């Protein structure tokens, strides 16, 4: 017998399901209308479009190039309008609001403070403006009937040379809104070992970090991120698939690195739509997430850049549900994985899982039992309409 809970969730259920987001860039998630207003207010005149809908489409198309360096060029426009305290506050507040509206209950949102200094702000002023914005967004979300908690991850750019400075900044703000550290930017030619001093510093401080690795570049990047740098999580990590062999009879063999990642329960921050745009995967159906989920890697689902990918957490799940037939149980599995892998303290993660995530899914999974039907005869399970 199949119960209704083995059916694919509806778009409305997907949106209402509690979701956890670990990999989302603040400068990759602005509302198009906000970019236009901020550009006008600050005199930035290089936007390719001045109509919000057209600008949204421009970002998606420009990011759809099949190349990570080209994808990253689009951030020049978003960073250009995020150079004042007011702009950073607004973008951060709207980010928290938009995520909450989409059913995200916990998010770690990252950005590179060094990219927001052009108008004279200090690194500290950047962090504080973003923190204040997140708190404001949490308040607005609460007033609108949503609950969300947002932590910041401070990113250092891998082509630059400020990683240690940003790691120290992350450590200074660790009890004040910042939950960890990351490096991002073009991967090929910029190995994470360039920034070993930053990672060693954070380890000495018992702090947490994730590294973008295994997206545009393969296994050596993942290996360095884990075995040289000691990353707690991998941003993307999708190319771990190169160390997994599937034989014609369906049997699967894991190489040493893939085994290590699975055995040590290293969280992989999967971003399916972003991977399609940078050609790290060919289609949703062929995305390695399908096989990695079957093999029980510690997988999480993420947005990466909601603006450039025209996406949201709900959209990412919709694509995966279409491609792989996932159910609410699968969504819960991804969500609990993400919460287990978050950088906030263990007791808080556990409370989120037990008091927010599991009850949220239990509620959704039991809805069919209470659905009203036109007819009062027959079995509820088979007669119910959506
Ligand atoms: O998917 C990505 N890979 C590498 N770097 C990225 C990705 N998405 C965004 N970034 C970069 C561009 C942003 O300006 C920076 C900080 O958020 O991080
Ligand atoms: Zn990213």
Automatic annotation (TrEMBL):
Gene Ontology BP annotations: adenosine catabolic process; hypoxanthine salvage; inosine biosynthetic process; nucleotide metabolic process; purine ribonucleoside monophosphate biosynthetic process
Domain Adenosine deaminase: from-to ranges: 18-358
GO MF annotations in UniProt: 2'-deoxyadenosine deaminase activity; adenosine deaminase activity; zinc ion binding
Entry keywords, A to Z: Hydrolase, Metal-binding, Nucleotide metabolism, Zinc
Catalytic activity: adenosine + H2O + H(+) = inosine + NH4(+); 2'-deoxyadenosine + H2O + H(+) = 2'-deoxyinosine + NH4(+)
Site (Important for catalytic activity): 236
Cofactor: record remark: Binds 1 zinc ion per subunit.
Superkingdom: Bacteria
Name of the top EC class for this enzyme: hydrolase
HAMAP family the UniProt entry points to: A_deaminase
Function: Catalyzes the hydrolytic deamination of adenosine and 2-deoxyadenosine.
Protein name (record): Adenosine deaminase
Organism: Streptomyces globosus
